[in-house]
């Protein structure tokens, strides 16, 4: 997963819910160096009686926000969704630097 263009990552999940695997894989895919480069990473562990909805929300450096429901989406699908936008930003960056 291309995480270079992430500015903010917000993950909410119930550790015993169906979304836990997807949320944990997403958080583990973000390298520690990403935090040093200025990306904000927030995670919130929900209880089973919580009224908040599990969610994965990514804000990219170009201020684009994408939100995905980890209960209905696999990690591979989430990765593909976010990589698609990251590739657009990478192409834009390479054109500007040429």
UniProtKB/TrEMBL annotation:
- What keywords were assigned to this record? Mitochondrion, Ribonucleoprotein, Ribosomal protein
Question: Which GO CC annotations does the UniProt entry carry?
Answer: mitochondrial large ribosomal subunit
Concerning InterPro entries, the annotation shows:
Ribosomal_mL53, Ribosomal_mL53_fung
Q: Where is the signal peptide?
A: none
Cellular location(s): Mitochondrion
Concerning Pfam families, the annotation shows: MRP_L53
User: What GO molecular function terms would the record report?
Assistant: structural constituent of ribosome
The family this protein is said to belong to: Belongs to the mitochondrion-specific ribosomal protein mL53 family.
The name this protein goes by in its record: Large ribosomal subunit protein mL53
């Amino acid at each position: 997963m291309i995480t270079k263009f992430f500015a903010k990552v917000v993950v909410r999940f119930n550790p015993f819910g169906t979304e836990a695997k997807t949320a944990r894989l997403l958080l583990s895919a973000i390298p520690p160096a990403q935090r040093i480069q200025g990306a904000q990473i927030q995670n919130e562990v929900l209880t089973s009686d919580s009224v908040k909805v599990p969610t994965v929300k990514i804000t990219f450096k170009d201020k684009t926000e994408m939100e995905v429901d980890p209960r209905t989406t696999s990690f591979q699908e989430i990765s593909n969704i976010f990589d698609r936008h990251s590739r657009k930003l990478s192409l834009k960056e390479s054109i500007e630097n040429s």
